[in-house]
Amino acid sequence: MRTGSSKKRLSILVLICVLAATLAACASDNPDTVPEGPAPDTASVPATPDDDPTPGDDDTDDDADDTLTIAIITSPNSVDDGAFNENCYGGVLAFLDEHPEANATPIQEPIIDLSVLAVEEYVEDYDVIVTPSASFAGIGSVALDNPEKYFILIDVFPRDTEGNTIEVSNIYAVQYKEQDRGFIAGVAAALETQTGKVATVGGMATVPPNVNDQFGFEAGVHYANAHLGTDVEIYSIPAYAGVDGAGNDVGGNYVGAFDDADLGKLLAGGLYDAGVDIIFTFAGGSSNGVFGAAMERDNVYVIGAGVDQFDLGVGNGKSVVLTSVIKMAGVNVKYALDTIADGSFRGGNNLLGIETGSVGYVQAPGRHQLSDNTLSVLEDVLLLIEDGSIVPPHSGGDSTPTAFPGL
Question: Per the CB 3.0–4.6 Å rule, which of 79, 126, 158, 384 could disulfide with 106?
């Protein structure tokens, strides 16, 4: 059963009272700034696209104002997942803070295969639909059928009924180069490991951003081994190897779901017990189990993803989080909402990475446990990715974690 209502919308005052903790958690990664401002812990906030995508329907521009009704539909986890959904919701809350006439409703569809149907069900009740995650790729047809509505699609480009990527005038869509942040996580893990064994735990290999994270991480470890004097093994358990949407065995370690913390804990426990001391996890709610497994052991760490997850790893007075690698999704959500409110909205597909400050890692004092040497090396690596000297591999690409430009 879905949570949320198509008839009752939460005001900004209710949202802040009920979800103050969520807002506080998002604040460090989702500043209340427009895209031109600085991003926390990274180089800059995501730039807007250089090209002018096809504008939305003329009627939608005419109707734009501050009294927007917004639904943020998430699946399978809620907006307070402590990860990507929360990141995106932080952008909604930041917009509401500046536009008190607007209203927003979080809606959770617990069955991931019903994500697009949930959008179809609620679209008529709202001016704007915000959808974080690749499970919403199929909303392209919904947007075409509802040209007077606005859609903000984060983490995937829209597809038609045949699975082809399309660009839709009333969808502001963003994909990230997760391989960039994964690469940073891999280099950091290789430099910081004490056992010489590191690993990943993903949610579902059928979701391309997950494989991007994995490939980027593995490439980062291989880069460190080749150029930074490390000798680190990327460890995996064959029974948990991932298979992508094309049927390819991509390796790694996958829970097979984004909402199974128990299995995430079991998998992470097996990795730690095999000698792994650092796990990079990007498994949504399943990552909670990875944190739990780490907190039950000594001298092991987690690299978080999505938002600053330092506090999620606190147990016995200390955190197991080495650092967190992030996507500035909340900033992109707020940017799109701002353009809707001021009438300047333009739909289009936007691919963002390190070069636009759209992905990075947490380096604020007290929010990471990286050495000064690692921080220095990571800054050099960021510049090499930004100028194209290093091009981390991604899902479906020609390069691999062991053969990519810059290795």
Answer: 79
pLDDT of residue 7: 33
Closest CA to 285 of 133, 60, 101: 133
Mapped onto helix, strand or coil, the DSSP state of residue 270 is helix
Q: Please give the model's pTM, rounded to 2 decimal places.
A: 0.79
Report the alpha-carbon distance of residue 302 to residue 321 in Å, rounded.
5
pLDDT bucket at 38, cuts 50 / 70 / 90 = very low
Which domains are present in the chain? Answer: 12-176+328-356 (3.40.50.2300), 178-327+371-386 (3.40.50.2300)
DSSP secondary structure, 73-119, as one string: EESSS-TTSSSHHHHHHHHHHHHHHH-TT-EEEEEE-SSGGGHHHHH
Spatial CA neighbour of 222 closest among 236, 211, 234, 210: 234
pLDDT digits (tens, 9 = 90+) for 350-394: 999 998 889 999 999 999 999 999 999 999 999 999 999 999 999
SS3 of 340, please? helix
